[in-house]
């Protein structure tokens, strides 16, 4: 009887775990001793960082997706269906079509989703770029924009820790290229007392904002938006008028996690920070945005976590203990506009240290956008 590994989620984390695992235990898979199944809610695998570029008409939807089946090793089973429940005691995953899968090991890689509906009026009034349709709507709004006040608002938690800065700096350059910068005021809001949660990043970004005449508004936690008067009000009592409102919406975990009682109030799953095992379990691993770890929700985080989980799963399937530890590693490119970019790399114990932006890093980022598909296939 084969050992059943179920991977819930067909994004970067789930795909890398499945592909790396099938290669690591190739002999066992070929003999039928191990069977790996990926459950994905949609047939396409989506490279989400391209949505930011899509908003500036620097990428098109076709570049951001490929069939999930083409990403996975042929020996991995793929089920395209919504999961409705996870029962860690019975070791089952229930699907919308009525199917129930039993697992010996489960990897939860369900990610997170933007939830603008949590802020009254935000979904109706604001633009964002965390999925294809909203990114294209923002692209169209920018194409029609001829000056005024652009307000960027940030909800927590959210995917990609540096996305607010990237959008703001790219917007500044985009406006300058079109001769609209002198006709536009950019207001960048942030929920805490500096312009980014990571202090070294804030220390780098704040002078750049001053240099580019970008107005920061810190201690601005969104409370409500009035689409009729085009105003947004913070919990702190500050009200800002806008001509174009762009938001980094607060994110939540997926419905299946909440419905299964696995997550915290935001739908994120508490895990051991090194083993990535869900609390109270010995055979349920969690990677990427789905965890409640107080670290960046980023594609690189999911990738580095997937490396650890795949290695430990392979050991355990072969009778080992699986003792490799995740050290909190994160790597993020930061587009800074003007065809320049920088990056940050950090772990649980080593803080980030942004370098001066350069064209080389910008073009390396663009190159990685092309190479990503090798990464998701577990090749790099």
Automatic annotation (TrEMBL):
<dbReference type="InterPro" id="IPR023753">
    <property type="entry name" value="FAD/NAD-binding_dom"/>
</dbReference>
<dbReference type="GO" id="GO:0016491">
    <property type="term" value="F:oxidoreductase activity"/>
</dbReference>
<feature type="domain" description="FAD/NAD(P)-binding">
    <location>
        <begin position="4"/>
        <end position="128"/>
    </location>
</feature>
<dbReference type="InterPro" id="IPR052541">
    <property type="entry name" value="SQRD"/>
</dbReference>
<dbReference type="Pfam" id="PF07992">
    <property type="entry name" value="Pyr_redox_2"/>
</dbReference>
<dbReference type="InterPro" id="IPR036188">
    <property type="entry name" value="FAD/NAD-bd_sf"/>
</dbReference>
<protein>
    <submittedName>
        <fullName>Pyridine nucleotide-disulfide oxidoreductase</fullName>
    </submittedName>
</protein>
């Amino acid at each position: 009887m084969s050992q059943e590994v179920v991977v819930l989620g067909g994004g970067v984390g789930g795909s890398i775990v499945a592909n790396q695992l099938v290669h690591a235990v190739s002999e066992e898979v070929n003999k039928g001793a191990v069977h790996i199944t990926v459950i994905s809610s949609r047939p396409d695998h989506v490279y989400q960082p391209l949505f930011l570029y899509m908003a500036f008409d620097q990428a098109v939807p076709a570049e951001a997706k490929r069939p999930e089946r083409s990403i996975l090793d042929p020996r991995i089973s793929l089920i395209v269906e919504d999961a409705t429940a996870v029962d860690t005691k019975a070791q089952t995953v229930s699907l919308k079509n009525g199917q129930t899968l039993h697992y010996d090991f489960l990897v939860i890689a369900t990610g997170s989703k933007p939830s603008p509906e949590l802020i009254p009026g935000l979904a109706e009034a604001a633009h964002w770029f965390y999925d294809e349709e909203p990114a294209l709507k923002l692209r169209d709004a920018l194409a029609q924009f001829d000056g005024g006040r652009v307000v960027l608002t940030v909800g927590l938690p959210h995917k990609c820790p540096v996305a607010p800065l990237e959008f703001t700096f790219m917007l500044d350059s985009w406006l300058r290229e079109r001769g609209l910068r002198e006709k536009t005021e950019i207001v960048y809001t942030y929920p805490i007392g500096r312009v980014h949660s990571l202090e070294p990043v804030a220390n780098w970004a704040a002078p750049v904002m001053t240099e580019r005449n970008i107005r920061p508004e810190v201690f601005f936690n969104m409370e409500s938006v009035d689409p009729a008067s085009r105003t947004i009000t913070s919990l702190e009592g500050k009200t800002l008028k806008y001509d174009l409102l762009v938001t980094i919406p607060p994110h939540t975990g997926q419905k299946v996690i909440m419905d299964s009682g696995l997550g915290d109030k935001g739908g994120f799953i508490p895990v051991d920070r090194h083993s990535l095992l869900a609390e109270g379990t010995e055979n349920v691993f969690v990677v990427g945005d789905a965890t409640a770890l107080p670290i960046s929700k980023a594609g690189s985080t999911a990738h580095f976590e997937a490396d650890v989980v795949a290695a430990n799963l392979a050991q355990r399937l072969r009778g080992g203990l699986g003792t490799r530890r995740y050290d909190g590693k994160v790597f993020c490119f930061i587009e800074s506009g003007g065809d320049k970019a920088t990056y940050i790399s950090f772990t649980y114990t080593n803080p980030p240290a942004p370098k001066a932006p350069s064209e080389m890093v910008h073009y390396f980022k663009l190159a990685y956008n092309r190479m990503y598909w090798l990464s998701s296939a577990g090749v790099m």
